[in-house]
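Hi support team,

I've been running sequence recovery on a batch of backbones for a student project. Most finish fine, but this one hangs at about 90% for roughly twenty minutes before it completes. I'm not sure whether the input is malformed or the queue is just slow. I've pasted the C-alpha cells below so you can try to reproduce it. Let me know if you need the job ID as well.

Thanks,
M.K.
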C-alpha cells in the first residue's frame, strides 16, 4: 500500500511546505535544502530536545513522511526561511566574525515574515510576547546606534580643537546617567513584576514550534478525532486558518489583545520612522538645537513617571552644585562670558553634515570595527 503524502487533507505535503517557505522569495530554497535546514534547527536549538523524528508521521521510521500540521508549518517555515540569515547559522560560527549589521538583517527579515507570512491567529500570539516588540526595536535601532557610535569614536580622536579630557568627562557623565536610568527602569519593572525579559524572537518561535510538536504527539494517538474531520477542516486556506484558530483556542480575547499589541508595536515603529538624526534636521531646515537637546524617547508611562522623578531629583542636585560653583566663581578670576548666547558656540550646522560625510567616506575601517564590536556584544544576546 503506498505511503500517504500527508496524514489529513488539512495537513501539508512536504512539497506544499517548500512552496510555503518560498512564498514571495526571490532566491528559492530547494526541497533537499529545507530538509537539511530542519535537521540543523534541531541541532542549533538542542536545548529544546527536539529531533527530526518528532516531525515524522511515524517517529520510529526515518523514511516516513513529515507530519506537517498547519500550525507547525506556520512557525517552521519562518525558521527555515531565515535560517541562513542567522549570524550563527554557519558551522563553527566565530564570535569575532559576528556583525551587528548581520543581526539587523536577521531580525528585520524575521519581523517582516511574522507580519506578512503568518496566519492572523498565530501572529496574534507572537505579537503578545515581549520578544517580538524587542526584536522590532533592535531591527530599527541597531544600525543608527552603530553609526552614531562610529561618529563618537571618531570625534574622540580627530577633533583637534576639542579638549579630549573634557570630552571624556562629558560622555562619561551622560553615559553614567543613561546607565543609571536603564538600571532604575529595570528595577522598577522588577518591583512591579512586569515581565519585560529580553527573550530572543527565534526562541519564542521555538516555544510555539514545540507546542505544535506536542499536539502532533496527541494526534498520532487519535485522541483528537475532531481535528481529522475533513468536513470541518478541508485542505483549503480557509480550512487551515480555521484549524489553526481552533487548535490554539483563539478567541475574541486574543483578538482584542492583538489590537492592543499591534497598536503598541506600530506606535514604537512609527516613533522610529519619524525620528530624524541631526543631519536630517539640518538638511530639512528644521534644526533646533534647544529642542533636540531636550528630546526624549517614547517610553512606558510608569517608567516615564519614575524617570521624571529621578530627573527632578538630579536637577535639584545639579542646582545645588551650580550654586556651589557660583559661590566659587565669584571668588575666582575668570573671563566674563555673560554676553555670549549658547547658540553662539554652535558651529555652522552644514559643517556637521560635511564632517559626517567625511567620516562615512574615509573611515570605513572604523565603521567596520564598530559593526564587529557591537556584533560581538550582541552575540551574547543571540546565544
Amino acid at each position: 500500500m503506498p505511503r500517504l503524502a500527508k496524514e489529513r487533507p488539512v495537513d501539508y505535503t512536504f512539497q506544499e511546505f517548500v512552496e510555503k517557505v518560498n512564498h514571495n522569495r526571490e532566491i528559492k530554497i530547494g526541497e533537499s535544502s529545507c530538509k537539511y535546514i530542519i535537521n540543523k534547527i534541531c541541532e542549533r536549538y538542542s536545548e529544546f530536545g527536539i529531533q527530526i523524528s518528532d516531525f515524522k508521521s511515524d517517529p520510529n521510521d526515518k523514511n516516513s513522511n513529515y507530519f506537517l500540521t498547519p500550525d507547525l508549518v506556520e512557525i517552521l517555515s519562518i525558521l527555515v526561511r531565515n535560517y541562513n540569515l542567522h549570524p550563527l547559522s554557519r558551522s563553527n560560527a566565530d564570535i569575532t566574525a559576528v556583525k551587528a549589521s548581520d543581526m539587523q538583517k536577521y531580525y528585520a527579515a524575521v519581523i517582516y515574515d511574522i507580519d506578512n507570512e503568518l496566519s492572523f491567529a498565530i501572529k496574534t500570539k507572537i505579537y503578545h510576547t515581549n520578544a517580538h516588540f524587542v526584536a522590532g526595536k533592535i531591527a530599527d535601532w541597531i544600525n543608527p546606534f552603530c553609526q552614531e557610535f562610529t561618529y563618537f569614536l571618531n570625534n574622540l580622536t580627530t577633533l583637534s580643537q576639542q579638549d579630549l579630557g573634557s570630552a571624556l568627562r562629558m560622555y562619561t557623565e551622560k553615559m553614567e546617567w543613561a546607565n543609571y536610568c536603564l538600571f532604575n527602569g529595570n528595577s522598577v519593572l522588577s518591583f512591579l513584576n512586569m515581565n519585560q525579559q529580553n527573550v530572543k524572537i527565534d526562541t519564542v518561535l521555538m516555544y510555539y514550534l514545540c507546542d505544535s510538536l506536542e499536539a502532533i504527539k496527541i494526534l498520532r494517538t487519535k485522541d483528537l478525532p475532531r481535528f481529522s474531520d475533513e468536513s470541518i477542516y478541508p485542505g483549503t486556506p480557509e480550512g487551515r486558518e480555521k484549524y489553526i484558530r481552533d487548535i490554539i483556542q483563539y478567541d475574541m480575547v486574543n483578538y482584542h489583545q492583538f489590537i492592543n499589541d499591534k497598536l503598541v508595536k506600530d506606535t514604537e515603529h512609527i516613533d522610529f520612522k519619524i525620528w530624524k538624526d541631526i543631519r536630517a534636521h539640518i538638511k530639512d531646515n528644521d534644526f533646533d538645537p534647544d529642542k533636540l537637546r531636550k528630546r526624549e524617547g517614547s517610553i512606558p508611562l510608569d517608567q516615564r513617571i519614575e524617570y521624571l522623578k529621578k530627573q527632578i531629583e538630579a536637577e535639584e542636585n545639579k542646582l545645588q552644585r551650580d550654586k556651589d560653583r557660583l559661590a566659587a566663581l565669584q571668588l575666582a578670576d575668570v573671563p566674563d562670558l555673560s554676553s555670549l548666547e549658547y547658540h553662539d558656540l554652535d558651529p555652522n550646522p552644514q559643517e556637521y553634515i560635511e564632517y559626517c560625510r567625511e567620516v562615512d567616506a574615509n573611515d570605513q575601517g572604523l565603521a567596520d570595527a564598530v559593526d564587529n564590536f557591537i556584533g560581538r556584544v550582541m552575540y551574547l544576546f543571540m546565544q
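--
Follow-up from support: It reproduced on our side and the slowdown came from queue contention, not your input. Residues 337-345 have pLDDT under 50 and may be disordered. No action needed from you.
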